[in-house]
Amino acid sequence: MTDQGAPAARAAGAPDRGDLDRSRRIARVHVEVEPLHLDRPFDYLVPDDVEVVAGQRVEVLFAGRRTLGLVAEVTSDTDVPDDRLRPLRRTLGDHVWVRPDELATLRWLAARTGAPVADGVRHALPKRVIEVERAAAEAGWYPAAPRPSSDPAPDADALDAAWAGYGEDGRTLREAVTSGHGSFLWRPLPGEDLAARVGELVQLCLAGGRDALVVVPDPSSPAADGVVAAAGDLVVDTRGDLKQRAMYRRWLEARTGRVRVVVGLRGVSLWPLERLGLAIVLDEANPALKERRSPRHHAREVVLERARRAGGVGLLVGTVPSAPAWRLLRERRVVPIVPTREAERAARPRVTLVPDDGRYRTRLAAEATGALRRATRAGTYGVVLAARRGEGRALVCGRCGERSVCPTCASSLLLGRDGSVLCEGCGWRAPKLPACRACGERRPVPLAAGAAWLGRELTRSSDATVAVLEGYAQTPPPPPAILVTTRGSVLDTPPGPVGAVILADLDGALRRPTLDAAEDTLRLAVQVATWAAHPLTRAVLPDGGEVVVQSREPEHHAIDALVRWDPGAFWKAEIVTRTALRFPPAAVAIRLGVATTDPGLGAAVRAAVPPGTDVLGPLPVEGELTFLLKADDRAATLAALRPLREAWSKAGTTHRLDVDPVDA
């Protein structure tokens, strides 16, 4: 006999045990343990001196260890024999951690992602800090706080003017936020002041007596700053590197109702609010919004579901919809909020397409260098988007573009840190590049130039200050200057007026070996191109800045959608390819990785899934076998895999399941 809790075995229709002592209290607990085969509530006896209600977090003994759990139900009924019941050890805090509707959401999340409920509980709840509870009790807002009031709604005439570019769609969204409900996908105008618009929506929600949740992909989001400014002392901002004490205090303020707005990264998707009326996800397609640990959910799905269950508004914001968002649009489960065509034409930047003639020695076309020169002479920034950080390692001939290959194994040659060339395939190395097989040239250039390489080229050829920005929170020099940036430095708001945006290497991004390469490339290009149309730019250049696109594939539908500024046209073309391949959004992708080398695993997976589910693989990835499943019915496929996964769990075989992986 072990001292772990006994599983709650009573099922619907089970016989009533007349001999059960009705005075006993039984807590049905989701124990926070990882194995999938233990994903069920366990019954514990509540001692006479312990007060416990559903939703409280408790400490229990499970398999001889002190473990946390969440009470799902308090009952007097159990089918567990008396000698197997173990007592609860203690409750954690005087507050309810998870309310019944929130537990229902956690169970929905577990079913949707194929994860144990306990994983969702661990993800949703912070670590307890008793000192925070004591300080809050002394301050008078724990275990419950009086509901704070908000400022009146913004002036109606001012709102009409600010949202005029969206026509009837804008009025529909604002009316829903004030007192209605629904799911929406908003494509902002190019150069839109997102901080102001999102702040107005939050104010409308608060004035209507409801609360707001805003999820952002990065801590430097200017739109999140706008929400914090608009909500004042009604908001908790969880961005930044918060310590355990600070994070628990903010969560407790939301739990007790002391605040009415929560702003943060993907981790706040499940944070509590008293009367959720508006839940927003900014840049909904950003991969940073996808959780990397179980349950591997995306903030997009969680936010929409929470808003739906609360009778509020779920709002996704983005320029080019993700594949899952496009699927929701096609199924009419979200309502598009888009600018009028006239407003979008007036607001969009001027885009010039320059077909690339295969230049390698000089990365930028004359049209691009001319645009940078005009931008800096006007006292603004010129921005060059680099494909990657650093130098860019795979080499081609600087004259003709012939790929530089290893003389031993024919793999691509790379540039070493000491200036030598090397092959990572077989280890061959030489102090300098061999002569090009096609033209005899010995000067190498990267196949896709990194930010550092472009920065050096521009420093040699330009009189303006050149700064290379790689990653978040980089501080640029004041304009005029040329900024060479990577995607990590591309935010909703430019660093200042931008007179020129140069997109010189979109082809490299389009050729990445991932299915979402085209949509991701277009999304990034649109985001940085809007800097040339931002109010900061138009304050200096009334007609906005220039956008120059260089491409060897000018007919590619992603390039065409960028030049015509028509994201909808991209998906109309992209969906043809996706449907033929049965990839998202035409089907649901599920990635399954199992830490085994069993040659029979593929046959077992194929035998388990329902008809109509395609299984690709296995491929050996980092010590495991990985499969990609394409399913028409996500729930049926996950249910069919469950017995197999529970068997792996019992055997101690590690496996990972990811529904809608961000790179599929």
Give the helices and strands, then pairings.
Elements: E1 6-7, E2 26-31, E3 42-45, E4 57-62, E5 65-75, E6 90-91, H1 100-113, H2 117-124, H3 130-139, H4 156-162, H5 167-179, E7 182-186, H6 194-207, E8 211-215, H7 222-231, E9 235-237, H8 244-256, E10 261-264, E11 276-282, H9 299-310, E12 313-317, H10 323-330, E13 335-337, H11 341-347, E14 350-355, H12 366-377, E15 381-385, E16 395-397, E17 414-415, E18 421-422, E19 429-430, E20 444-446, H13 451-461, E21 466-469, E22 481-485, E23 498-503, H14 506-510, H15 517-529, H16 535-538, E24 546-551, H17 557-564, H18 567-581, E25 588-594, H19 601-608, E26 614-621, E27 624-631, H20 634-651, E28 655-659
Parallel strand pairs: 7-12, 7-13, 8-10, 8-11, 9-10, 11-12, 14-24, 15-22, 15-23, 21-22, 23-24
Antiparallel strand pairs: 1-3, 2-3, 2-5, 4-5, 4-6, 16-20, 17-18, 18-19, 25-27, 25-28, 26-27
What can you tell me about this protein's structure?
The protein is an alpha/beta fold and 664 residues long. The chain has four domains: 93 residues, GIY-YIG endonuclease, CATH 3.40.1440; 188 residues, Rossmann fold; 176 residues, Rossmann fold (3-Layer(aba) Sandwich); 72 residues, 2-Layer Sandwich (Alpha-Beta Plaits), CATH 3.30.70. Helices cover 32% and strands 20% of the residues. A hairpin with a 6-residue loop joins strand 18 and strand 19. The longest helix is centred in the last third of the chain and has 18 residues. The chain is globular. The chain starts with 5 loop residues before the first strand and ends in a 5-residue tail after the last strand. About 2% of the residues have low confidence.
